[in-house]
Write a structure and sequence with these properties.
Strands 2-1-3-4 form a four-stranded mixed sheet, covered by helices on one side. The longest helix has about 35 residues. The chain is built from five helices and four strands, in the order E-H-E-H-E-E-H-H-H. The protein folds into two domains: about 80 residues, Glutaredoxin (3-Layer(aba) Sandwich); about 55 residues, no CATH class. The model has no long low-confidence stretch (mean pLDDT about 90). With about 150 residues, it is of the alpha+beta class.
Length: about 150
């Protein structure tokens, strides 16, 4: 896309949502730069970042001055704006609606519950903190239930 600057993605690769954005950008050869924001250091709470996303969450995408947050919205925007292969986000309304249906369900169910499991099984131990076995069992049960 002539005259278009590379998109800038603000990411922390500890986040599944951020990894999805980076994989999508690379796989579709969308020109991009990455600004690493370390959530564990609170870098998403700086005044500069808060101007981009007042909710202080990642990921954030900037495309020629257009700022977009939320991974689902970013992926759908990139698929549309950069005319990626149709299998990513179909143009046919019925097929696109099925993708939207799944991503809405996934966000409210799988991602919410897997994040809790990840916290207890991976993040807390890496940070030198004890995992509460009851909380881990509850997180696993919630995941299985959904």
């Amino acid at each position: 896309m002539a005259g278009r600057q590379a998109v800038k993605a603000y990411l922390d690769l500890v986040s599944q949502a951020c990894r999805a954005i980076l994989i999508f950008l690379k796989d579709n050869k969308i020109p991009h730069t990455v600004e690493n924001i370390a959530i564990r250091k609170g870098e998403q709470k700086t005044p500069e970042f808060t101007k981009l996303n007042p909710m202080q969450k990642l990921p954030v995408l900037v495309d020629n001055g257009f700022v977009l947050t939320e991974s689902d919205a970013i992926l759908k925007y990139l698929a549309t704006a950069y005319n990626v292969p149709d299998h990513w986000y179909p143009k046919l309304p019925e097929k696109r609606a099925r993708v939207d249906e799944y991503t809405a369900w996934n966000h409210a169910n799988t991602r919410t519950h897997i994040s809790s499991v990840f916290l207890h099984e991976v993040l807390l131990p890496r940070m030198g903190q004890q995992t509460n076995p009851e909380e881990l069992e509850k997180a696993l049960a919630d995941l299985v239930a959904h």
